[in-house]
Amino acid sequence: MPYNLLNRDIERELLPMAEAFGLTVATWSPLAHGVLSGGLTRPGGPDTSTRIPSDSLGTRERAAALALQEVADELTATPAQVAIAWTRARSRAVHPILGARTAEQLTDNLGALTVSLPADAVLRLETATEFTLGFPGDFIADMPPFVFGEVSDRLDGR
């Protein structure tokens, strides 16, 4: 399944299900087809060799790229490493599939294994890209505790 800061749909049902059953999830496109690789925020301007032209991206994509760059600068990592580390920080069940075109990209991507994201960095990245769980997550979260009776304190509304 695709999974990255810009495409978090699996957090609605599939990822919680996999976690509940002790399964792992092979996810692809952790760099959102290159949008989260750092090409937009490189010193000297956007990388023009990317598959996706920078002028075709919206504010959400730009916000994610900037947040990644800020966190990467703080951790002395690359935006690609932070983007991949974020997928791994979200759940132990996730193992991202890398799609590097060059040995240099692969080396950089594998550097994500040494990146440990602090909780505040994870929160900043997620805040930069709006996401709602949708039904049933938001429905469960909005219910008063009496609806679920004595088990309401054990309910995990992810």
Task: Report on this structure.
The protein has 158 residues and is mostly helical. The protein has one domain (9-131): Alpha-Beta Barrel (TIM Barrel), CATH 3.20.20.100. Helices cover 38% and strands 5% of the residues. The protein is built from 6 helices and 2 strands. The chain has helices at 14-20, 59-75, 79-90, 103-110, 119-128, 137-142; strands at 25-28, 94-97. It has a two-stranded parallel sheet with strand order 1-2. Helix 2 (59-75) packs across helix 3 (79-90) and helix 2 (59-75) runs antiparallel to helix 5. The longest helix has 17 residues, at 59-75. It is elongated.
Features:
6 helices, two-stranded parallel sheet, mainly alpha, TIM Barrel
Q: Brief overview, please?
A:
This protein is mainly α. It has six helices and two strands. The protein has a single domain, classed as Alpha-Beta Barrel (TIM Barrel), CATH 3.20.20.100.
